[in-house]
Write a structure and sequence with these properties.
single chain; mainly alpha; globular
Length: 282
Amino acid sequence: MMKQNDRDSLSNSFTKAGFSQGDTASVFTGIAKLRADEKNFSDYFEGNWATAFVKSECFYVIIAQAVSAYDNYLSSLSEERTKDKHSTLKALAELHRRASQQYLEILTLIKNGFPDGAFARWRSMYELSVISSFIHKYGEAVAAKFIEASGSQDRYDWAMECGEFSEHKKHVTFGDILKLCDMDADVWRENYTVANQTVHASPQGTFGRLGVRDGSESFSQRGGYGISAPAISSANTLALISSMLFSIFPEEKTMEKMSLAAKWLDELTETYCDIHEKLFDD
């Protein structure tokens, strides 16, 4: 419910902008309907998907606990023990922090019924996993260049430090890095293709939105159809990036947490798939 002071302030703003009393009343009516629709959708959505959302949150908590255990372990190591992997650890830790934030952003979009926005955000998470894999593979010198490039306009040329590219190559692309990292690109190819279509002004992303079941409808609204894909993909990607970070200096308690996360990932995936099948006939 909008407070009277806020309503009066908005009314004054509408008047200054040249709105008639009828225009102002119409806008206020539209706002009330928008908020009512949002509340009704939220109640309906929670009723169907609450268990899945809790499992997504649980997965994040398990990963956060693993990070805490790993940080405690690292703090117990001497500087001499970690100095040869200082840049690698710093780069992968920061990539992991960014991916963790994006996981929460995706979860927020999912909870509000925006699967296209969530999948578009997952695209960035996937790219973080590729960069993490590349740095994990090529090590300290590449990691140091990656960190150094943070103060420049260099997007991917820092990767030249790996020694795999010709000295005559003008620029390194994300595709070049993807070909050299130790990830199985084929596993993610379809999802990444869809995510690219979702991000860009493509005809596929325009007429084949995740939230529209057959691509024939042009309305814009919240929905549950399609949220399973970014929910499951983002959890898998966060697990992957976490594993790369924790493998720099393996530690028992952290590995126990990651084993638990892997089992919970199966549980999360099954829940999202079961709810989707229950609600939709495809």
